Each structure stands twice: as C-alpha cells, then as structure tokens.
Amino acid sequence: MTYRLSVSGTPVRIDFDPDEVRARFAKERDRRIKREGVDQFQGLSDVLEHEDVDRYAQPITREAVFEETDVVLLGGGLGGLCTGAYLRKHGVTDFRIIEQGGDFGGTWYWNRYPGVQVDMESLMYMPFLEETGYIPTQRYADGAELYEHTQRLGKHFDLYRSALFQTIVTSVTWDNDQRRWEVRTDRGDVIRARFVVRSNGVLSKPQIPRVPGINDFKGKIFHTSRWDYDYTGGDQRGNLSKLKDKRVAVVGTGATAIQVVPFLAKDAGELLVVQRTPSTVGVRNNVPIDPNSVATLEPGWQAARIRNFNEIMNEHDPAENVVNDTWTQVFGKFDGRDLVDVDHKTLPLEDQLELRGLADLYFTLQIHKRIDSIITDPETAEALKPWYGYVCKRPGLNDEYYPAFNQPNVRLVPSPDGVDGITETGLVVDGKAYDVDLIVFSTGFETNGSTRSRYGYEVTGRSGLTMSDYFSDGAKTLHGLYTRNFPNFIELGLSQNAYIVNFGFMLERKANHAARVIAHAMNHGIDIEPTQEAQEEWVTKVREAAKPALSYMAECTPGYYNGQGDISKASFREVYKISEVDFWDQMDAWWEEGALDGLDVAPAHAAQPTTGSH
Ligand code: NDP
C-alpha cells in the first residue's frame, strides 16, 4: 500500500494500515483496563510481610545517635551517594546518610534477581567513572558490577563514616523556631540538620496484585526485588541449581521479567511466564568493553557522551551519534525522518505530526518483525507481540528473552486479565489451574500515592503542614527540587523536572546541583525556600508542557506510566516535558546568574547545642 500524508500528499514508506493498527491498539488496551485501576495492587509487605525482608544484611545493633549536623541525606542509593560526593567536593563535610539497606546501592542493593542489568550503557549510567578510574567490563553492566560501583563510590568519597545503615526513617519534621529539620528513625536516632536531601527512589516499594488466595499457596512466593537464593541456589549471574526439578511461574513481563526469564528458562525444570501485556524487547548487543579504548578518551568524555546521548534522545540533532545504541537509533528517528524521501522538516506542521504518529506505530511493528524472526511457534509469536505505542511502557532491550520461548521447558501463558487467583498448589489464569512450586512476582513497584505511603514516613513542614496534605492535589515545587513551607528540603525525585531515560545521569546531575546550592546557602548563612509566585509559575509551566505527552499516555495500554489507564493517577504526569538538555542548561544559567531566582532566602539561625536527651 502507499500511504500519503494528509496535507502535502508526501508518500510514506510503511507496510501497514495505520487505522487498522490503531484500532487494534485500542482493542487491546480496552481488554486490559481494570475497574480497580491503581488499587489492583498492594504492597508486598501488606500481604507477605515475611517476604519483604533484607536477605543480604547481617542484623546489627547500635546505640541511638543524637546529633546536630549540616545535612541529612535520606537514601544511600546513587542519589544519596552522589549528593554526599558533591557535598564533600563543595566543602560541606558534616552530613549523615540514612539508608534502610545494609550497604550503599539502593536499586542495586535490593534488585539482585538473576540477570539484573542496566539497560543503559554503563559508560553513561555509572557516575564518576573518570574520577574513580573504573572502567566497566561490559557495555551493559550487570547488577553485581553496579552494586560494587556504589561501594566504590562510598569508599572513594569517604562516605561510609557518614552512613547509618539498616535504619528506617520514621519522621522528618521542621522546627520553625530553631530552623532545623529533625529526623527520627526506628533505632531511636534523633538527628537535627539545617538541610535535608531526599533520594528514596522512584521504584522502591515492591507491589503485587490483589489476587485472591495468595496466603493459601503452600509453595514458595517472592518478589523479584527480594530474591531468595537460599531457595533457588545460584546468584545474580545464574546457576540456580536448586530449581532443576521445580515448576516455576513468573508473573509479569515488564523490564525486570525480561531479564529474569532467560535465567529461569536456563535452570528451572519448567517455566511458566504469565503475561498480561507483552513488552517491546529490542536489540541489546551487549559486548565487553575494551579498557584501552576508554583509557585513550579525552578527559571529560563521560559528560560529553551523556550530552550527545541526551541531545539525540531530545531531538537536538547533533552531527554524530557517539553511543549508537538501540535507544538513539529509535529516538533519533522518532520524527519519522527515515520513512519519507524528503527532508521531514520541510513538511507542513500537520504532516510532521502525522509522520511522528506513524513512526511510533512503525517502531512497535518492527518489534513484531523481530519476534517473527526468532520465535518458532506461530501462536507464541502472536501472543508475544505488543500492541501499543512504542513509549507507552519502558522499551526493553534483551537478546535472550525471545529465544527462551523456543525452549521446550518454557511456556507462555498469556491472558489480558493476568492472574485470576492463587490456590494451595499454584495459580489460575484465564480460568485454568497451573500447579507450580515457586511463584515469582515480577509485578513492579508502587509509583502512585503519597511519598508517605511509598517511603513509610511523613515530612512535616512549617506550621505542621504535611507533605501528603500539601501534595494531595499534585506536587508543588520550584524546579522539582524545592517546596514552599518545607525550607531547606530538596527532593531528588522525578516530579516537575526533566528526565528522559538515564536514571544514573538524572541523579548525578541533580545531586551536583543540590550540593552546590546547599554549599552556597551555608557559605552565605541563608535558608532557602521557593517563593509562592515562583513555585506557582513553575508548576503551571510544567503542567502546560506535559499536556501533549499526557494525551498520548491517555491512549496507552494500562501500566504504571499512565496510572493503569487513569491518566489523573499517572506517576510520570509531572515530569517536565522539555528536553533534559535544555532543562540543565536552564539550571546552569540560573546558577551562574547567582541570584537564586525564585528562592526566598532568609538568614539562617545558628545551631543550638545538641543535648543528647531528645
Ligand atoms: P513493571 O511495573 O514495569 O511491570 C510489572 C509487570 O507485572 C507488567 O508486565 C504487568 O503487566 C504485570 N502484572 C501486573 N499485574 C499483573 C497480574 N495481575 N497478572 C499478571 N501480570 C501482572 O515492573 P518492572 O519491575 O518490570 O519494571 C519497573 C521499572 O523498573 C521499569 O519500568 C524500569 O524503569 C525499571 N527497570 C530498569 C531496568 C534497567 O535495566 N535500568 C531493569 C528492570 C527494571 P501489565 O503490563 O499488563 O501491567
């Protein structure tokens, strides 16, 4: 067929009927919408408390800490580590890091499931490679290597002495008279600080579906982020020797499951993969990194590489594609430039938008072709095909996932409703019972709801105002970092600032910015808090900018990106939809101007002596 753009009549090189594809997208979406929306999930700890445990730490005992410090960092993942590193670089040395896990690492501490890897080039994801002199072994490092790197950062920047591990924050409260934050923990610590930087993660509280019968199951159940190697044998790199005679079910086929499945397929006696919605799984092409090729790079190469990547991802059209991975190959052409024989920028605006919409369909259908070229059973191939816009869910990259379904011990169990129930001996999908020994929930993390629900503690600002109440109708920040009524509190989250796909970069960049602002405030003896006007202006700007993306997401198949089909509950609705390159250029200019525009700066109070008797 020849498809022509509506206004100019320019032919587009596609081999599908867009109306048919869109109709199928809508049909598949409607089949998956659940009345319960985001409430179809519950916290892992709500129903399987004994499984929501830290299997990697030896329990410690210690005396409670009572102290006054300059900064408390909530979270010892990449955000907390990078903030600690930059605080030291900017001359702030008196700070505490409070971390629930038994070591640094965050995501890489908890997610130790077999096959865990980063889906972003290690050379761009792992912070401070130049400064620590570390060269990753593979283009996409595995979880063990990433976890080791977080410890390397801890040692390199001398952060261990500042850390309180295995410690859970219970409250964070602003004392307006003393102008200090007071952080309390489950170990009885009371730590007072001028500043708090929170980086507790976006995907940290494991969730599972509210499926009837979970507690009836007599076999073993766990969540991917709480993997039980005592039960499976082996480690993150595989060799799950105890599963040889076991029947295993994986529930979910998101970014985590596509990494787990090939490893379970290799070692389990039988593997059932319960799929509600198929993922898009593109080419990964993981290769070893030649240390010599990295050693010869010009200083500053990491920042330059990331910038080039972000420029492509944000359509700034740089002259060269340095990284040249699947991300840049797709997103660099998401405007459909390769589908027409003319310069797409010369087309009328309506046609450019139409072409972009076609490219979105085209990239999803390229995944169909990949599936057809790999999967031998036609029925399985059909069931694995995603029917939704390419960016409705996080696109996956993996070269072992699809081939696993050609193995005789692996069976795909597709059902748009997912798991119906769990019995004493297994699970029920689409009315059919499957007996298994182990159920692995690869069903993601809570992303909706308040931070109190996700992190388990409240932040209380001026006049007893809680953050949950203040944000009950949406986040309110300046630059996604500072919030009125919560002086000297900086959040390194996803709300109201830019993010495209690289969490490592996003956290490192925010950490640097937060640390320089704090150092500046300390050097000038000031407290910081956004003005009401600046905050309102920023929130309005963010919400306006997000509108086109939200109308795209509203049409998407349900998932955590779009609040399970209810866009008003979408977790990423507040991400600032301008280019991440532009956002940071804007932040750098804001910083260079030196006026801290939009922040109300008040003289800070001197510290009060700590009594130790709180
Ligand atoms: P997701 O939320 O992406 O996936 C959850 C999966 O569980 C989906 O396939 C979902 O189906 C399925 N599911 C939910 N309820 C049911 C049910 N009742 N029956 C059957 N299936 C069900 O979680 P992940 O842990 O996979 O990924 C979360 C995020 O973590 C990713 O988006 C990514 O940002 C990050 N990640 C990053 C990696 C990296 O390399 N950097 C690696 C792994 C994860 P449905 O789609 O129908 O809702």
Please name the defining characteristics of this protein.
614 residues, alpha/beta, nine-stranded mixed beta sheet, 20 helices, globular, disordered C terminus, binds NADPH dihydro-nicotinamide-adenine-dinucleotide phosphate
Summing up helix and strand content along with how strands pair, one would put the structural category as alpha/beta
Determine the fraction of residues in helical runs and give it as a percent range: 25-40%
Unreliable stretches, pLDDT < 50, 5 or more residues? 608-614
Mean pLDDT: 95
- Beginning-to-end CA distance, first to last residue: 76 Å
Query: What's the total helix number?
Result: 20
List each distinct ligand once.
NADPH dihydro-nicotinamide-adenine-dinucleotide phosphate
Overall spatial form: globular
Number of distinct beta strands:
25
